Here is the input.
Amino acid sequence: PISIEGHIFLCAIIHDISARIMAQEELQATTERWERTFNAIPDIVTLQDTSMRIVKINRAGCELFGLLPDEIIGRRCHELFAGLGTPCPGCPCKKGLSVPFTPHFQEVYHEYLDKTFRITTAPVPDAAGKVEYVAHTVKDISQNKELEQQLLQTEKMRTVVGLAAGVAHEINTPLSAILQSLELVQMGIDPDNEENRKIARRHDLSLRNLQAYLAEKRLDYFIDGARQSAINSGEIITRLLEFSRPRAGHVEAVDLREVIRTTWRLAQSDYTLKKKEHILDVKFIEEFAPNLGAVPCMRIELEEVLFNLIKNAVQAMADNNDRQPRLILRTGKLERYACIEVEDNGPGMEMEIQQRVFEPFFTTKKVGEGTGLGLAACYSIIHDKHHGKIEVNSTPGKGTTFFLFLPLQANKNIPAEK
Here is the structure.
């Protein structure tokens, strides 16, 4: 109030703040829109200060770690992502602070999460051009890496298959000649053959004495050994040709429980697995999912895969004498796949071996005990013929599990069960 000559007056100043209110509302709307966009990004995005403390994280990052934003903000990047007390070796955030200020990229495997990430960092300068924050983006590329490995394995299989076919054909002809020659040698010195005796008499030669000489010098043993080796080599070539020759399988709807039980009975009747690997001592456990229904697949090929996996498991457990051998076969469903698990409690495998088990000709068995084609054939059957997946998980000293994923295709293209 203002007093003038005894009179009281009120003075009011009116400012039009409509523009300011509209600007504030627009700023609020822009901020909220930015927050929604920030949280809608599927990759993990954090904003970090120059000491690598996280000052902001989006929803994808919170969901990955199962934490609230307040539980993450203030922590250092290397503490959250790697559980380290110091920056990671080759830290991309530190590179983002270097001159010139350019984005940096790095791929990192996170052992705890069992995922591979592509990390991108970019400097965020202040008004003066000095780096104030670092934008840290983490993209989960695990699936891409898996697809790359599958593509690499497929290309490797194609190359080896072509090579195997060529080598098998080139070797088969001279090997057949060697085997035939050795058989003719054995037939030519057989004393019970009348034609041999006639020719021997013309040359004043006793076939019985020749047989005795060969036996004393063990030459007959070496000839027979060479013949048997040629036969074994021929069997390997036959397997190579079968491996390289595509077979047209018949797709039908089958009960996985029946396929598994049939294959297990077949494995139990295998002479080598019974006598040498003692398969009858293995405790067989079924863990079948109820109501899985019929699954479209190539039954004969699937039985071949299961037989190979069972045989490998039994052979591995035969060398593990400190516990009862146990084999578990499970069925289940995961999204659009029917799943089969073959789990043993054998000695397990190191990661280096797991990464190579599906490579053709790779084997950990002794020379003469395996060709290294079994698991490669399994990979080809599941991946190429069924368009499914086969994976392995193993822990040294605890055992190995193989996972088969068979697509659950539409039944309209599958012959009905009779």
